[in-house]
Amino acid sequence: MERRHLEIFLAVVDHGGFTKAAEALYMAQPSLSQTVRTLERELGCSLFTRGPRGTAPTAAGRALVEPARSILRGFTVAGESVRAVLGLEGGRLDIAAPAGLTFEVLASQVGRLRSEHPLIECVIAEVHDDAQVVQLLTESAAELAFLYLTDYSVVGQTPGIEVRPLGLQQMWLVAPPGSDLPETVPYGLLQDLPLVMPMDLGPGAALMMAQARSNGLAPRPMVTVESPGALAPMVLAGAGCTLLARRSAQSAATLGAEIRQFEPGLELKYGVALRTTPLSPAAAMFLDYVTEFSAQN
Q: What percent of the chain has pLDDT over 90?
């Protein structure tokens, strides 16, 4: 079994077929198919089922995905470690994070990384739940997964994965321009405010709703949007109020929105999940950046 065999195998898995995988790898499809057959003969089993609906990995193929990604990640870490020792630049950093943390915490640190090390490629995948975090880490599709820390999270209970707390993210109320609001917003006021909320409640909105219910309230969204990116434009247009992390709220304020803190404050704990195997130099460096940033903010 050679490294190229695994790269081709994963390309078929990731692209869902032989034709698209061959196009992505810039190779002839017959050559790609022959490589897969060679790998199947060596392993003594079929790795893919080919049918009218496309190509899908067999049970044996699915079992090979995680080890294959781990092996290739090991090659990457080894090569980048040597380049780091030699003072060379380069490499790739795969990160996973929910949109709220990408905007608020990671964006500035990705900018710092790219400024100081412009040859490092960054790929950031958006995640919506703990199951995605576990999948990306166990399949070695991401080295670092940033997430909100909750009492019911299962990420830290997964073998081979550790979770490190990093900091707190403040959530603020964002209201249309000219709204008459007190200096700080008590939870009781939510009952009377028209809310603009995402269909998939993020951790901040979910926490706000839980806090409201614990105070005997039942706020109901008047406008529901699919994309979180539409929240601020809706508020600025006068559709209602929403909940955003502090920096996003302050950005909305520069466009005219009214922003207020909650009383008591509404804060989300966040951290990073990573495998217990060694990190690549790029991932270790980025984690240091984010840890420093979180401690200062």
A: 29
Reduced 3-state DSSP string for 148-214: ECCCCCCHHHCCCEEEEEEEEEEEEEEECCCCCCCCEEEHHHHHHCCEEEECCCCHHHHHHHHHHHH
The structure tokens listed for 62 are: 């699915």
Q: For residue range 127-145, what is the model confidence (pLDDT) as tens digits?
A: 888 888 888 998 888 999 9
Q: No. of H helices and E strands in the chain?
A: 11, 12
Identify the sign of the CA torsion 114, 116, 121, 125.
negative
Q: Rounded to whole angstroms, how far apart are CA atoms 145 and 232?
A: 26
* pTM (two decimals): 0.67
pLDDT at 146: 94
Per-residue 3-state assignment (H helix, E strand, C coil) for 271-282: EEEEECCCCCHH
- Residue 146 has phi, psi (to 5 degrees) of -90, 140
- What mean pLDDT comes out for the span 50-54? 74
For 50, list phi and psi in degrees, rounded to 5. Answer: -115, 120
Residues composing the chain: 297
